[in-house]
Write a structure and sequence with these properties.
Blueprint (H helix, E strand, L loop, with lengths): L7 H28 L10 H11 L6 E5 L6 E3 L4 E5 H4 L4 H18 L3 H30 L2 H38 L5 H40 L1
Parallel strand pairs: 1-3
Antiparallel strand pairs: 2-3
């Protein structure tokens, strides 16, 4: 029977990866909490900082607007809008400037047809299907003994892993663009730049941790499938 009531692969592979993900989330929340309490010397708001990045790239058709929530900041390429959480949009903290510039970095990527963005968008529809049903199909296939279901589930979930893998250069590049403009435009003082970099680095590690969780989950499914055939 599938699992024998104890899924050792889950315990050995997935649980440690999930703990790493929790640590990454705690890291980014801690960094944000620390640097959201320290105002930048120029008293720039997140909105103003994002505008500065857009101007540096000659982008004039992207709107910036507030959105409810905490750490809900994102760039919406369909609407061509940068949405900043209220604390970032009107905030003057080091964290607010770093996060806002990062999201403007995503807008710059789209404006310049950054290749990993195109690849990620191509994979997205299949990755969404794999995220919602890949593991479920594979597990059902293992339980019912249908190898074809297991194979379909694993293939679908592979697209989730691929999507998250392509997401890494996208996120790191957006942060690199943000820090570049922050430096060139003197948006932050030297010591403040270190704080902004720490916030963005912590945020990037959550994507790394998410990838590790997905890889562990995929490996678990593959090993279970191989074990069932023996």
């Amino acid at each position: 029977m599938y699992g024998y009531f104890i899924d050792y692969y889950y315990i050995i592979l997935v649980v440690p990866a999930m703990l790493l993900s929790l640590l990454a989330q705690a890291w980014v929340k801690g960094a944000y909490r620390k640097y959201s309490k320290i105002d930048n010397a120029r008293r720039l708001t997140g909105e103003m900082a994002a505008q500065a990045v857009l101007r540096s790239y000659g982008i004039t058709d992207v709107r910036i607007e507030p959105v409810a929530g905490n750490l809900t900041d994102h760039y919406d390429p369909r609407s061509n809008v940068i949405r900043l959480s209220e604390g970032v949009f009107a905030g003057t903290s080091i964290a607010a400037v770093g996060i806002a510039c990062h999201e403007a970095g995503h807008a710059a990527q789209h404006a310049q047809n950054y290749v990993p963005i195109k690849v990620r968008n191509t994979i997205l529809p299949v990755a969404n299907i794999g995220s919602s049903g890949g593991i479920m199909l594979a597990v059902l296939g293992l339980v019912w003994g249908f190898d074809i279901l297991v194979l379909i589930g694993i293939v679908l979930f592979m697209f989730v892993v691929l999507f998250q893998l392509v997401t890494l250069p996208v996120e790191f590049d957006a942060s690199s663009r943000a820090m570049k403009i922050i430096g060139e435009s003197n948006l932050l003082e030297d010591d403040e730049k270190k704080g902004a970099r720490k916030v963005l680095t912590a945020a990037a590690m959550t994507y790394v941790a998410a990838l590790i969780v997905s890889i562990a989950s995929l490996l678990r499914l593959v090993l279970r499938a191989q074990g069932r055939r023996r």
